[in-house]
């Protein structure tokens, strides 16, 4: 393992310290917790809280700030924070109008965030939740764990955060977030593995000439392991699988997110996007806005994900609303 | 004499020893079919539980189990924190007010623990989760009237090993579908260490349950 760290068991704490020091105008660390919260609070606004395992930076603390999240809970690397820490995030975000939790659909995250909701209700804080499951690489099923939440979650942060900023009540903020979840689909691919610092070695092996289509942001298996393909071929596969889900059709307007997983240069992400934009044009889908960069990474994994968010007038307005966070500005 | 506070403390210590010894093994099991951190998370949580429970003198098994549970819930994280934490917490609630735990009470405590796991995890049997160890062990306790250490450990071990041939339907291993077959479920392996430790404490300390 070759990493610029001090102690593999202390990476999250040290990262939070560095983040708070760098962006003290936007966010601050709540002492003795795993929570980063907004410096400037909007009183009487629904609080938006997200979080989960660390290792996905800038997710989620990079989206703390005006117009997006009020608090992010930073769990251990790839591991959901416990309910006590999520409760701290809820408390930091609560200003009397209730709190909405944006949870990515993983067993651990859902269990811990739900336990935190129960604890918050005992402290008479009104809390509701939405669960993001945008990854079309996984079959959707209520019987199993179902689809994973990946980079499309960042669009949900943006939409929920913008809606909350309008002063809308919790139920309306939740409804907008759920609309975003219904309208967003994503799929990823990986070129290389990643190493959890405390594990010291990569979570899986991937040969130099291999890639995996549909791989999750913790290295969970995807749809198929294949020989390395070109960026154009990868763009075709990802978009075709997303469109097969039937949410995005000819005549629709979409926001596109081309997300790097940690070790993929912007050059490659832009090459991919060139093809993505061609394909969408051919399919009669209008691209309203495109976001290219690192939004939800998998430590140092190489690879990308593509997310499409179908827009209507409400979602366009909320997407365009101001956001002042360290990793997303409008 | 039934299970006392001292025995619960020994149970926690013994389990912690096994988790620490097998930290790499548990993580490797999780690397095969999950996200590769189960051993790390369990080792961290149990180490904290040892530290936390060393701070107090507990008056009852219930009080000690409660601190053990709360530490797991807050320090293990992931899915294992709520699941193992809920199991131990339900045991704590089940034996509240008792200085000693007899066989019938132990059985009830395990029934409550399993109910808590099922409620929290929304899983059923044969989905390759720790339910596949806890359900058979509860049935085993129900079918017997006195604690047989060797048989208890064997039952837990057999149940754990049977998860190897199952296809995962819950948790991260579910994404692997048929590729999850052929690997022991990491949560079931940790459950086995927990149960084996209880069995060893009961045998070594001459506990009559």
TrEMBL record, chain A:
Which EC class heads this enzyme's classification?
Answer: transferase
Pathway(s) of this molecule: Polyol metabolism; glycerol degradation
* Start and end residues of each DhaK domain: 7-328
- The organism's place on the tree of life at top rank: Bacteria
Keywords per UniProt? Glycerol metabolism, Kinase, Transferase
Q: What's its EC?
A: 2.7.1.121
Mention one GO molecular function. glycerone kinase activity
Entry GO CC: cytosol
Q: Which GO terms describe its biological process?
A: glycerol catabolic process
Q: Which reaction does it catalyse?
A: dihydroxyacetone + phosphoenolpyruvate = dihydroxyacetone phosphate + pyruvate
Q: What does this protein do?
A: Dihydroxyacetone binding subunit of the dihydroxyacetone kinase, which is responsible for the phosphoenolpyruvate (PEP)-dependent phosphorylation of dihydroxyacetone via a phosphoryl group transfer from DhaL-ATP.
Assembly and partners are described as: Homodimer. The dihydroxyacetone kinase complex is composed of a homodimer of DhaM, a homodimer of DhaK and the subunit DhaL.
Name the record gives this protein? phosphoenolpyruvate--glycerone phosphotransferase
């Amino acid at each position: 393992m070759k990493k610029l760290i001090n102690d593999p068991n202390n990476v999250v704490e040290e990262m939070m310290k560095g983040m708070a020091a760098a962006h003290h105008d936007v966010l601050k660390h709540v002492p003795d917790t795993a929570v980063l919260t907004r410096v400037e609070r909007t009183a009487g606004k629904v609080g938006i809280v997200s979080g989960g395992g660390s290792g996905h930076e800038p997710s989620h603390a990079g989206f703390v700030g005006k117009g997006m999240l009020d608090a992010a809970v930073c769990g251990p690397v790839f591991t959901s924070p416990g309910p006590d820490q999520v409760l701290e995030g809820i408390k930091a975000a609560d200003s009397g109008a209730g709190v909405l939790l944006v949870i990515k659909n993983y067993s651990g995250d859902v269990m811990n965030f739900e336990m935190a909701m129960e604890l918050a209700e005992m402290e008479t804080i009104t809390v509701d939740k939405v669960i993001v499951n945008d990854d079309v690489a996984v079959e959707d099923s209520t019987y199993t764990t179902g689809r994973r939440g990946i980079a499309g979650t960042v669009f949900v942060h943006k939409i929920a955060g913008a809606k909350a900023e309008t002063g809308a009540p919790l139920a309306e903020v939740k409804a907008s977030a759920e609309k975003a979840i219904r309208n967003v689909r994503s799929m990823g691919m990986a070129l290389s593995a990643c190493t959890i610092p405390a594990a010291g070695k990569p979570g899986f092996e991937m040969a130099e000439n291999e890639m995996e289509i549909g791989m999750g942001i913790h290295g969970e298996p995807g749809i198929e392991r294949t020989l390395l393909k070109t960026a154009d071929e990868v763009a075709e596969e990802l978009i075709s699988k997303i469109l097969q889900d039937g949410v995005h059709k000819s005549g629709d307007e979409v926001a596109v997110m081309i997300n790097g997983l940690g070790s993929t240069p912007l050059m490659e992400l832009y090459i991919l996007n060139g093809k993505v934009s061609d394909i969408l044009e051919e399919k009669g889908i209008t691209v309203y806005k495109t976001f290219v960069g690192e939004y939800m990474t998998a430590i140092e994994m190489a690879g990308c994900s593509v997310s499409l968010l179908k827009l209507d007038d409400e979602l366009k307005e909320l997407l365009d609303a101001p956001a002042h966070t360290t990793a997303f500005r409008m | 004499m039934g299970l006392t506070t001292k025995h619960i403390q020994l149970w926690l210590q013994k389990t912690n020893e096994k988790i620490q010894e097998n930290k790499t093994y548990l993580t490797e099991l999780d690397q095969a079919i999950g996200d590769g951190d189960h051993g790390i998370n369990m080792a961290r949580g149990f180490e904290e539980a040892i530290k936390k429970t060393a701070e107090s003198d507990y008056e009852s098994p219930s009080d000690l189990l409660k601190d053990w549970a709360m530490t797991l819930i807050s320090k293990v994280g992931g899915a294992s924190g709520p699941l193992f934490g809920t199991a131990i917490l339900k045991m704590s609630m089940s034996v509240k007010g008792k200085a000693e735990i007899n066989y019938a009470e132990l059985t009830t405590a395990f029934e409550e623990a399993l109910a808590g796991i099922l409620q929290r995890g929304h899983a059923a049997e044969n989905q390759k989760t720790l339910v596949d160890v806890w359900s058979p062990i509860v049935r085993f306790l129900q079918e017997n009237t006195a604690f047989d250490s060797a048989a208890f450990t064997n039952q837990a071990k057999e149940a754990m090993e049977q998860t190897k041939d199952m296809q995962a339907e819950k948790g991260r291993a579910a994404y692997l579908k048929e590729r999850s077959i052929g690997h022991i479920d990491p949560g079931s392996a940790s459950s086995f260490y927990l149960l084996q430790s209880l069995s060893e404490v009961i045998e070594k300390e001459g506990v009559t349950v």
